Amino acid sequence: MKSINIGLLGFGTVGTGVVKILQQNSGVIEKRLGAKLNLKWIADLDVERDRGVKVDKNILTKDASKVLNDPEVNIVIELIGGYEPAKSFILQALKNKKHVVTANKALLAKNGSEIFETASKNNVDIGFEASVGGGIPIIRAIKEGFTANNIQSVYGIVNGTCNYILSKMSDEGRPFNEVLKEAQALGFAEANPSLDIDGIDSAHKVTILASLCFGVRVDFDKVYTEGISRITPIDINFAREFGYRIKLLAITKRSGNEIEVRVHPTMTREDNPISKVNGVLNAIEIIGDAVGENMLIGRGAGDMPTGSAVVGDVIEISRNILNGGVNRVSPLSFLSKYIEDAKIKSISNIVSEYYIRFSVLDKPGVLSKISGILGNNSISISSVIQKGRGEKGGVPLVVMTHSAKEKDIQKALSEIDKLDVVLDKSVLIRVENGERG
After folding, report:
1. Which is the catalytic residue, given 87, 168, 205, 345?
2. What is the pTM for the complete model shown?
3. Which of 40, 162, 210, 254 is buried most, with the most CB atoms less than 10 Å from its CB?
């Protein structure tokens, strides 16, 4: 039986999962592939720590060049993460005519064009299924399962940490900081959680999804990104009264000749399937013109789910090697000559419904002042909740709007927040009601 030699860069959480899967599932992999996957090298700065998996000490090295320059290595798996040295290692592997599998969403979001072009020039494959959605095969679904469709939109919960925090806040009424500490204690959030809670991790992933869905190069720095740290139990409770739940959504969709690419807290109806996805699970909904709505749900992180996606890419590339082929499917779904720079729609020009919470003095005439300013800016109100009669100090006044332009909303809020009856900066959450595409 033929062997495909693999070199692994990074023996952390996901790297350990990859090794476990290669060992535990070697039999079924060989039956499906018709060849053995041979782990020839594991490179990591720490080769002494016990990962709970047994490996031959002779394949462990601190020297990445042994992986990158070994002529017998067919596929390099990069699981170091971050920008450098991961980028340099990947480019060197590709230039050495080695196929690459990576889970590095940050690197692909920022430097994907250079990496994909290098792979193409050197006639080698690159797999990155694990970069979005962990064990959910979303990238393969877009590249192959939905290839007959004009994809209209993608809505996704793509960060399990934020979904866990918002789910706990919604179901248990607990404040953000308290649930964040719990998530950190359970290992669902990092000691420095900013990449997750500020929406940056989700922005990396939606950048990749937009490129795949629409055949465009997306400038990551133009992706509107907003995190969840300002969400409070009071907003979650009001959302429930209106029949919504709050999720951090990564959204990309066609909008005329532009593409919307954004990440922010979003209110979705309680009867929307994505509202029912809780805990650390991810969920990604794709709307295609022919296939309609499809949703994939699963574990978006962790050693085994992400390791599953990595090994899946290794097997796919190994099949190409065995059959003497390469680039059977273009890495970004579209042929490279048709990929264009994306025209990203400014967040100020999007159209949405909005939830707005004002903190106001409890006195007559406040609602009429606020509604007057909204009306003057072409914003109509669909629902109002006003509470706190008899209380001292500020009370919440909450409105839900009909569809409006973001720039009109922001202009109105800048005026309203200057009123002497408004005591604090207004809270805005965008609403998605299923008018997709």
Report:
1. 205
2. 0.94
3. 162
